Amino acid sequence: MPLDSDVAILGTGVASLAAANLLISQGISVLLLNPDRDFFLEDSELPLDPLIYGKLSAQKILRNSPENALKFLRPDFPGAIEYWSGTTPMDGYHDPSAPHVRQRGRLWISSANSSVQRPWEALEDFYVEASDADLHPQLFDDWVTIQRFPGCSSHSLHMKGLFVPKLCDVDTVRYRNGLLEFVRERLPEEKFINGVTQLEWMPEGIRFHSDGTLKTAKLRKKMLAFWTPRLTPWILYQAKTAEIKPKLPIGARLWEDWLLNSREAPDPQTIGTFNNMIVWAHSEGAPSKDSPTPLLAILRAGPLIQLEEIHLPKSGGISSDSFKSLSDLCHGFLKWESFSIRSLKTRIIFEWDDEVKWLLSKSEPLIEVIPACDGPLVDVVRVARSACEPILMEA
Amino acid sequence: MQFAVRDGKFDVVIAAGPRVEHWPSVGVRTLSLLCAEMGLSVGQLGGEALTVHGIIPLSGTGGLVIAEDIQGRIHRIHARAAIRITPGLSWPDPFPGWRSQALIPLQTAEYLRQKSQILWERLTVILGTGNRALQFGSTLLENGSGQVLCVESYAQWGAKRFSGWEVEKRHFEMLGGKITEATPLEVIPKAPLLWQLRLQDTQGVRVLEIGRIVSAGPFHNSLGVREYPPGSLLFEFDQTASTLMKKGAEGWLLEEERGRWLAGKIVKALKGHLGPKREELDTLFRTAKRKLKRYFRHQEAPFTPSYQGKWIATADLKKIKTFGGVPQKLHFTQPIASIECFEEIPCHLCETTCPTSAIKTGKIPRKTTVLTETQCTGCGLCLAACPSRSISLIQEQKDQSFSKITLAWSGPKPWKIGEFGMLLNRRGETLSSGRIIDILNPSALNLKKKIKNDLQKDEKVQLLKIQIPSHLLWEARAIKRGRPSESFDEAFVASEDPTAVKQKYIKITLNGEKRTVRDRVFISVALFEIGQSRSTDILLCKDGSCGLCDISVDGLKKLACQTKIHNGMNIRFAPPTHFPVQSTLLCPCLRISQQEVINRLKQGKLRSAEAILSVTQVGGGKCHGQLCMDTFKRVLLDQGLDVSQWIDWRFPWRDWVLAHP
Ligand code: SF4
Ligand code: SF4
Ligand code: FES
Prior knowledge:
By secondary structure, chain A is an alpha/beta fold.
C-alpha cells in the first residue's frame, strides 16, 4: 500500500511539520495528516514567550535567549535563519526574507494601581536572581525607563521598571512556511494529506477519509498526534470512544493580538510589558526604522477558559476589558491622544500543568498524544523534537 | 468608562461594510423585512449613527459584530447569522500604470461627476462595457463631454450581456459613444490631466491621448452572495442597487432578488418550525432562485437591428414596426408611445409609471411588450421614466412631409422652443435636423405621489416635441445640439441655466505653492480639479474608510476626502504620498506585485486564500484591502484556486480611531 509508513503524524501546526521534517531527514517514512484544509489555519504559535504569568526565573529567561532559540530553530530548518542583534547593522550576506530571530530587551513596568501587575517586590527578587545568573538586569526608578517602552511619547511619568537586555522573538509565519515548503518537496504528494476526516484505527494501522475517499495505511511504529487547540474536538472525541481519560490542560487562554498605528516608529529594541499586555514594534525580518506605516503590536492575555468553552460562541471575541486595557495603555500610559486599530486577531493557547505524553489507544497501533504544541515557537519546536527522539533512537 | 462595551443580540445582523453607497439599499430592506416577517429579530447596522467595524466569526455559525455609535460607544452584537454589505470595486487586471491617478474606479468617477466641476472634455476611456459602464458613459456625453470610449478587455465579452444591456448600449451609442474590444497595455503621464494610453486590439497597438480612465469591470457573473466558511451563516452581499431604480435597473432588480433569496436561506437555517409559513417561504425562495438564474442566463445579444449605411435594414425595420410595444394604428392620428425595448428582462419602470396602465412588459423572460394603444393618452410619463430612452411618442403624418416625435432628453443646458437640433439614429449617427416645437412638462400632471417624487429626484428630464421629416420618423431616436452657430440663442439659453451658479474661488498653499481652488469643496475634490491629486487619492470613499488620502492641514493630520477646503489653508502631502506610478503592484500599500503572489503560491503549493495571505500579507496595508482584494481573488481564481466563496474576515475592516475619553 502506498500509504503504509513507519510513523503517522497528525497535526495542524508547526509541531507536526517540524516532526515530519526531522523524521524524514533520518530516513523514517512518514504519513502526514492534517484535519484542517491546510497548515495556515492554526494560529496558536507565538513569536515569543509573553512571560506574563507565573514566577519569573533566570531559567525562563535563558530559555528565551536568542542563543537558545537558534539552538532549537536552526538545526533542522531547511534554510537560513537570520539573527538580528538589535544594534549594529548586519554585515555579510543576508537573506532578508528568511525567518529572523531578533534579540530584544524586555522591560517590565510596575504601576501601583494594577491587579494584574507583578508586585514590585517580585521584580526585585527576580533582579537578584538574574544578576547572579549574569543576565545583566537593570532596575529603573525614573522616567528615563519609560522612554525605552515602545510607543512611548516623551513625558515625565514616575514609574519603576526592570530591564533584561537579551531575550528573543522569532518570525513564526516564515518559519512555518519554510518547513512546509520543504516537507512538501520531500514527501510524496499522496502522503501529505489535508482535510482528513473520520480518522479511526484498525489493526496495525489507521483508516480515514480525504477528498471523499476512504484510505487505509499500515503503521510500522506509531502515530503521533500533536495536540493544538484546533485538534481538540478530535482528541476529546477519540478519548471518549476509546474510553481513555485524557490528560487535560488547566485551561485555554484567549490571547488578543492587536496592531495599532503608531505615529512614530516605535523603538524596536525593547519589548515592553504593561499589565497583561506585551508591546513591541511590529516587524517581519529585520526591523527598519523607516517603515512608512509603523505599527505597534500588542499581545494581550485574555481570560482563561475551560476546554469545553473553546467552541462556544462567547469565546470568540473582544470584551469591555480589552478596550479598557488598550485605553489604559495608550491613553493612560503612553499618553497618546487617540489610537487607531489596524487589526485584531484572537488566538487560543493552552496552559499546562505538566506536559506529559499519553496514549490514545489501548492496543496497537500506539497513538501518542503530544501536549503543549502551542505557545512560543521555540517551545513548539522543542516539543516536536523530543516527541521524535524515542523513534530516532530506536531507528 | 468610555470604552464600556454594550452587548446585544440579534438573530440576523445586516452590517454596512466600508464604502456602502447608501443605506439601507433595496436588498437590505427586502432581506430584513422578510426575515422579520418570518419571526426573526433583525438588526440593520449602518448609516449615519452606527459604524460597523467588523465581524468576528465564531466557531460553528454566526459571528460577533462590533460597531461604534455616534457617541463613540462600542457595541458587541451576537448574530446567529451576519451579512456584510459591500459595494465591491471594479479594477482591471494589472498593467503598467494602472495604479496611477489616471485610473479611477467607477464609483469615484460617479462621485466626482456629481460633486466637482472637473471637465471631462478630453477623451474618457471606460474599461468595461457593462450596464453601469455604459450608463456612466451616457451621462458624461449628455453633460457635454467630448468623447467617451468604452473598452472591453475581457475576451469573452459576448457572455456578459445582461438585463437591460441592449437599451443601455443603444442609448450610449445614440449619444455618440464608441465601444471597442482591446486590452490596455500601459498608461504614461504626459502633463497634468493628460495621459497616454496604449491599447492592444486586433489591428495592433493604438495610442490615445486621454484625460481619464474609468475602471468599470470586469463583469462578475456571480450570484453576489457568498458564505464563508461554508455553512457558517456569515455572508457577504454585493450592493448593486443605486438610490433610484432608474439609475441602474439591473443592479436594483438583482439586489432585490438576492435579498429575497438570502432571506429564504437564512430563515430556513434558523427557524426549525415555520408551520403554515413554510410553503410561502419555499415559494419565495424558489422564485427568487429561478429569477436570479434567469438574469444570468441572459447572455446572448438581444435583438439589435442591422444597418445599411445610416438606415435600418428593411427586414429589421419591419420587425420593429410589428413589435408589440409599437403602435399600429392610432399614431396616425395622435401622439402615441412607442416602446422599443427588446430586452428579455425588462425593468418594468414604464409599466409602473403609466397612469392609464397602457403598458404591459410581461414576465421574465418576456417575448414582447404589449401596448394598449387605445389607453395611451400620450402624456409622456413613460418617456421620462425609461432609464435608457427606449420610448418615444410618435405621430406619423403619412401624407405630409413632416411628422412629430417626442423624445426624452436630459443635460446641463435645457432646450428652448424654436431651437434646431441634429437628429440621430439609434446608433448615434447624424441624420438631419429637426425643430423643437413644444416642450412637455409631465410633472405638471396629476400624478401619484410616488411617481412625482421619483420624477423630482431624477435629473431634469425634458420632453421635446420635435418636428421631423416624415421619412425619418422610424429612424431618428435622439437629438443633439449642432455647432453653436446653428443654435438658437446661446447666450440667452446659458443665462437661463440654473446650474450655472457663480462659483467662489479661494487661495490655498499646497506644498508651499500658492494655488487657486474652488471654495467649500472637499480637499480631495479640489486636488482632482487642479490636477494635483496623488495616485493614492483614487477611492474618495464617502466614509473615509480607506484612509489613503492622508494629508496635513495646517499641521494636523486629516483625510482629504473628509475635510472641506477654506481660504488660506496650508496643505501638505503627508508621506507616503504616491504609489509608484509605473508599477503593476497588486497591493500598492504593501508594495506586493502580482508576480510575487503567484510565485509564493506556486513555490509553496498553497491551496487556500488564508495560506497565501499569511505568507504575503496582501490586504494588510493601510486601505485594509479595499484596493487589492478584488484583484487578489481574481489572481487566485486564475491560478486555479477555488476562492469564489471566500471572504476576508480580518478585523477591523477599516482603521478604527479611539480618542481619549
Ligand atoms: S404616454 Fe402616458 S399614457 Fe401613454 S403609455 Fe406612456 S405613460 Fe402611458
Ligand atoms: S422603462 Fe420600459 S421601455 Fe424602458 S427599459 Fe424599462 S422596460 Fe424597457
Ligand atoms: S492595496 Fe491597500 S492593503 Fe493592499
